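Lecture 7 notes. Example A: sequence first, then its C-alpha cells.
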Amino acid sequence: DCYCVIDSLLRTDTNLPEYSFDAIIDKGLLDSIICGQNGAVDVKVYMIEVERLLADTGVFILVSHGNPDERLHFLEQYDIDEQYYTPWEVEVQALAKPLALEAEELDVEDPANLYFIYICQKRAEMVTKKKIKENKIKLEKKKKKPKKMKAPNL
C-alpha cells in the first residue's frame, strides 16, 4: 500500500531491507546506466540490487528502448554458479511508440519504433536455489576463517 521513489539503485548502500518490495518499475534508468562509462558493469550492480530488494515472489518491470538482443543478457542469467544469477523468468512485450503526427505511419517491424517491456517474475524454486547456494558459500567462508588463539597466561 505504499511506494518509494528511488533515484538510483546503482549502489549497494541504499539502506533498504532485503525483499522489501513486491514490485520495482524501471522506465529508462537501466537505459541511462548502460550508456555510462562503465555501463555493462554498472547494469550488473544495478540488477543485483533490484533482485536483493524484490520479495521472493516480486516482479521487476523494465520499460526500455533496448530490444531483447540488447537487454536479455542482463536480465537472464540462469547459471547458479554465476555471480549475477537471476531467479526470475522474463516475458517480453513490444509496444509501438506513439505517433508524433496523425498522418505518420510507423513500421512496427522496425525495433526503433517500439518500446520493450520486460516483465521479470521471481520464481520460488529459483529463489530457493539461490538461497541454498548463498548459505553454502557463507558456511565455506566460516570454515576458512582462522580461529583466534589466546595467548597463554604466564
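Example B, a different protein, same format:
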Amino acid sequence: NTIEINKTGAGSGNILDIDITVAHTGNVINIDYTGAATGDALNILLTTAGLGAQCIVLDNTGTASTTAGWALDINIAAAGSAAAIDIVTGAVAATGDVIHIDTGATATGQRLFNLDIAAALGVGTDAFDIDITAALAGDLFDVLPLLTEKLKAAG
C-alpha cells in the first residue's frame, strides 16, 4: 500500500477531511486509469458491524444545481458489453427498495425518470427489458392511485 490508514479505536471525527472554502476549478480527488489496472477504483465493504453506515451520502444544501449530472455523471465513450450500473441482491431475504425516489411535496415540475434514445434501436433491442422468473405476488407497475387522482381532478 502506498497510503494506509488503520483506525482501531472508537472515535467520532472524520478520518479524512477535505474542506474547499475558496474558488477551485480542479478535481478534489482524481483517479485516472491509463494503464492495465484491473482493481477497483473505489471498493467499499460493509460488514455486519458496519450496516448502520451509509456508503455514499450526497447532500445538496446550496443553491439550485444547474449543471447536468451534478449528483452523478456517467459518460461512456467506448463500446462495452457489460452493464454500466449493476445491482445484484443475491439470494437474501431483502425487504427494502433497490432504488427509492422520494421527490417531496414541492417538486411538482420534476421528472422521476427521463429516457432519451438518440440512436435507432436495432431489431430485438428493447428500451426496457423486464424478466420475471419467479412468482410475482404484487403488481409489476401500480399506476391506479395516480390515475384515480388525475380522474378526480379532471372532474
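Note on Example B: The chain has one helix and no strands. The chain has a mean pLDDT of 82.
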